[in-house]
Write a structure and sequence with these properties.
The structure holds two protein chains of two kinds. In chain A, helix 6 (134-149) links the parallel strand 5 and strand 6 (157-159). By secondary structure, chain A is of the alpha/beta class. Helix content of chain A is 44%, strand content 13%. In chain A, strands 4-2-1-5-6 form a five-stranded mixed β-sheet. By secondary structure, chain B is of the alpha+beta class. Chain B has four domains: 3-141, Jelly Rolls (Sandwich); 156-279, CBS-domain, CATH 3.10.580.10; 283-470, Beta Polymerase, domain 2; 485-622, Up-down Bundle (Four Helix Bundle (Hemerythrin (Met), subunit A)), CATH 1.20.120. Helices cover 47% and strands 16% of the residues of chain B. Chain B is built from 23 helices and 21 strands. The termini of chain B are far apart. Classes of the chains: A alpha/beta, B alpha+beta. The A-B interface holds A 67, 71, 74-79, 81, 83, 101, 196-199, 201-203, 205-208, 211, 214-215, 218-219, 222-223 and B 2-8, 30-39, 42, 58-60, 100-103, 106. Strand 3 (76-77) of chain A pairs antiparallel with strand 1 of chain B, so a sheet runs across the interface.
Chain lengths: 236, 626
């Protein structure tokens, strides 16, 4: 999707989506995602978002927890961070339990995704959503909104993994390297963070990964762009 | 709390002052922080910025600067900064810059103050270790105490009034009247011109109101005579970069009312007593003047009782170690001088000229409260042992006994003028020093490190300078001696291993001590002396020597500055420890108990010892045996 930036206008797309949408909650959210054209990274209000899921398959897997933290280029506001554990409709796979450390008992008392979705959207509204690997959050959120409101939701995101990929995966040198079977730089969250001397976190959860993603974007912007970088140029 | 902030809480819980917080509070702190990433080389705080958070370094490193841009401290993971600004009207006092890519946590001020209120240990950590700095800041804000670290140049308000040596006395007097000055510099214009075309002058003499009165008017001299005939030739001068207090001490020591200030030997202004009246007697000067007015050993002993009070007051006024060391040395010298005057009154004038020497820390201007008297005598070459020995024996005994009673105990190594071995003629001293330098056996090296810090305090003090010049010239071209002296300077090592152990055993019952002089300041002074002799420095003070060494460029980049910080820090901890001893009525020593140190102090101390350790390694490499 990053390649279509020139032909594709988020502004036009969102405007059209908003007017076609019949669900007020979703419609308002879409309108909140239309940002001023000259908004700079220094002015932007971001929110880092992370889902823990039972797997990567959007059709069969489900969200088990959601973490988010609002931030600006200056400060990550941990005090406003939010975290939800949600009850999936299917049974939890055993291996994802190990990964996320979320127990069955924690989940059985949890609300369903449908119940928390509006809260999540209101935390994201008006902010530039930042994720690491946009596929998961975009697709799973789209499906959740489908499920709850019976309408799709696709809106711009800044993807810290894609930003790493631009630097470490694109270009003829890396293509050549790949052709010759060389190992490319890892752009996984933990490895990307190391390149900016960010600390290694030992505990993983939706919220700590959201904080980690926010820290990574601060580092990427401070290393690679000026404060005047237009935020929509980072959209994916 | 959400499980998610465990990571932050767990991190904070490992570092003071957060170690002092109960789990529940720690979790609250963890959920209240803000986070920010700083790229290497970017400012975290600039001086005067508003500040509303306590900063904690999560990863990376931050440098704290003084306002003048000098490095003040280096902080790394787990260190906190910004407390000073938070405690003082929310302004940044010391700018901070990321020296590596750094991730910082910010703790909001409201919570910070709450923690200070609720947890004494937390408050103690953030406030106490900064108390001294805090006092200093407050003091400087009030505009007091600022002079104590000010350079002479800042007191110079006008260009010097000068006249050529060829001028007449009348011209000189008219010039003084016109410019309404009480003192005139007599100069020779140098034919060579600097790039900017300004003429350069060589200072050849000084003429004061008083000189006109006593040397011209009262003598009925011809006013058309040359000013050169009545001026004081080769006046004492002071460099513009000297501290004001040093200028003051110099004026007191030589009873000067006017002191020409020079820049690279060229006159830049004149410092008059009146210029520094507002600088007036901090107490050390008062004691010096008191010493010179006493008429017996008994009276001197009375004055000596005030010395420790004066020392404490200087520490309270946040004087630097350099200033305190200088003031204590001037006081020590004054006791010597007055005792010698009294001795000469009692024994009659000396049969041959002599120079009484101060050795060691007093000569280096680094004396603290408890210092052995190390002294010696240079005798004139006319000295005849059979005829004159009795006089100098009696003189030495008088001074040495007096010093002991005034709080300068006898030297256990008997390096005192009372020891006939250390009363020598100039020629014999030269021969003796030459022998030490040419044959650096262990004994010679031990003696060198005491005797090669020498200063004349009474009599023919210029002989001391001559002798020191001899030492400098001879050692400079003697790599074998320098290598030996360097090896000797490595004998006393900083207690690094001790520190590692100490950190591990901080909860144990072991009460051990570190001798800060033996393991810290003394080996530093030894090390600095080697470099100073190698670069031919005529300075004796360790800080001045370091300046000369830095100028000579023989140290790796920044090492010299690091050494200065280390020396200042170690001396200051030693000084503060002595103050505590005095206040608690304990015997004064140089042994600190690590138990009594705060975390910051311990870290800084370790850092200072590290600097010493690295510099000792460099010494070995710099002065190899060929």
């Amino acid at each position: 999707m990053g390649r279509v930036k020139d032909e594709f206008s988020w502004r036009a797309f969102l405007t059209q989506q908003a007017s076609a949408c019949e669900q007020p909650v979703v419609q308002q959210f879409i309108e909140s995602q239309i940002f001023p054209e000259h908004l700079t990274v220094a002015e932007a209000e971001f929110v880092a978002l992370d889902f823990e899921t039972t797997g990567l398959d959007v059709e069969n897997d489900e969200i088990v927890s959601i973490g988010l933290v609002p931030f600006t280029l200056d400060r990550i506001k941990v005090s406003q961070a939010r975290h939800w554990i949600v009850k999936p409709e299917c049974n939890l796979k055993d291996d994802s339990i190990v990964i996320h450390g979320i127990t069955h008992s924690a989940i059985s008392d949890a609300p369903t995704l449908d119940e928390v979705l509006e809260q999540v959207l209101s935390c994201l509204a008006g902010r530039v959503v930042v994720v690491h690997y946009q596929y998961i959050e975009r697709e799973f959120l789209n499906r959740a909104v489908q499920h709850r409101f019976d309408t799709g939701l696709v809106f711009p995101m800044v993807d810290t993994m894609w930003l790493e990929g631009v630097l470490y995966r694109a270009g003829w040198r890396n293509k050549l390297k790949r052709l010759l079977g060389g190992r490319l730089q890892s752009i996984r969250l933990a490895d990307s963070r190391l390149r900016y001397a960010l600390p290694r976190y030992h505990l993983h959860s939706a919220m700590s990964d959201a904080i980690a993603t926010a820290e990574l974007l601060q580092a990427q912007i401070k290393h690679r762009y000026s404060n005047n970088k237009i935020v929509t140029e980072l959209f994916l | 709390m959400e499980a998610e902030q465990i990571e932050i809480a767990e991190f904070l819980g490992r570092y003071p002052p957060f170690t002092f917080l109960p789990e529940k509070t720690l979790q609250r702190v963890a959920t209240s922080v803000e986070i920010s990433y700083y790229r290497q080389g970017t400012d975290v705080f600039r001086f005067g910025d508003e500040i509303h958070d306590l900063c904690i370094i999560r990863s990376g490193a931050v440098e704290i600067y003084r306002r003048n841009g000098n490095l003040y401290n280096r902080l790394s993971v787990g260190d906190v900064f910004g407390q000073l600004g938070l405690l003082m009207s929310n302004r940044v006092r010391l700018p901070a810059r990321a020296m590596e890519d750094s991730l910082l946590y910010f703790l909001p001020e409201k919570l910070f103050h709450e923690l200070c209120d609720d947890f004494e240990e937390f408050a103690y950590f953030v406030e106490v270790d900064d108390k001294r700095k805090l006092n200093k800041e407050v003091e400087q804000q009030r505009g007091e105490g600022a002079l104590s670290s000010e350079k002479v140049a800042t007191l110079i308000t006008r260009a010097p009034v000068m006249i050529n040596t060829s001028a007449s006395i009348r011209h000189a007097a008219l010039k003084m009247t016109e410019d309404s000055v009480s003192c005139l510099l007599i100069v020779d214009e140098i034919s060579s011109y600097e790039d900017d075309g300004e003429p350069q002058y060589d200072l050849v003499g000084i003429l004061t109101d008083r000189d006109l009165r006593t040397r011209v008017v009262s003598q009925g001299l011809d006013l058309d005579g040359s000013v050169a005939a009545v001026m004081t030739p080769h006046p004492k001068t002071i460099d513009k970069d000297t501290y004001v207090f040093e200028a003051m001490l110099m004026m007191l020591r030589f009873n000067l009312h006017h002191l020409p200030v020079v820049d690279h030997g060229r006159p830049k202004g004149v410092l008059a007593i009146s210029d520094i009246v507002r600088y007036e007697s901090k107490n050390s000067l008062y004691i010096v003047s008191l010493i010179h007015r006493q008429h017996s050993q008994e009276e001197l002993v009375e004055v000596a009782k005030d010395v420790s009070d004066c020392f404490i007051r200087m520490v309270r006024q946040d004087s630097s170690a350099h200033m305190i060391g200088s003031a204590m040395s001037v006081i020590g010298r004054s006791f010597k001088q007055r005792l010698l005057e009294l001795a000469e009154e009692k024994l009659g004038p000396p049969p041959v000229p002599y120079c009484f020497l101060a050795l060691g820390s007093m000569a280096r201007d680094e004396q603290l409260l408890i210092t052995d008297q190390d002294n010696a005598i240079i005798l004139s070459n006319e000295y005849d042992h059979a005829k004159h020995n009795a006089y100098f024996e009696a003189l030495s005994a008088f001074v040495s006994d007096g010093l002991d009673k005034c709080g300068y105990p006898y030297c256990s190594g008997r390096i005192m003028a009372t020891n006939p071995r250390w009363r020598k003629t100039i020629s014999d001293w030269r021969a003796c020093f030459a022998d030490w330098i040419d044959t650096p056996n262990p004994d010679a090296l031990l003696n060198s490190s005491v005797f090669f810090d020498l200063e004349g305090v009474w009599g023919k003090t210029e002989w001391a300078e001559e002798l020191y010049r001899f030492v400098v010239n001879r050692t400079k071209s003697s790599p074998k001696f320098l290598a030996s002296l360097a090896r000797n300077a490595l004998l006393r090592t900083p207690p690094l291993g001790f520190f590692k152990e100490f950190v591990m055993e901080q909860d144990g019952e072991h009460r051990r001590t570190i001798n800060l002089k033996r393991r810290g300041t003394a080996p530093l002074a030894d090390l600095i002396r080697v470099h100073a002799l190698a670069v031919g420095s005529m300075s004796r003070n360790s800080f001045s020597r370091l300046d000369d060494i830095i100028r000579a460029g023989i140290l790796p980049d920044k090492r010299g500055q690091e050494l200065k910080y280390a020396l200042e820090y170690l001396a200051m901890v030693r000084i503060r420890h002595q103050v505590e001893d005095v206040e608690e009525g304990q015997e004064i020593d140089n042994n600190i108990e690590p138990d009594t140190l705060s975390d910051i102090e311990r870290r800084n101390l370790k850092e200072a010892f590290n600097v010493l350790n690295n510099s000792q390694r460099f010494l070995k490499y710099r002065y190899p045996f060929s």
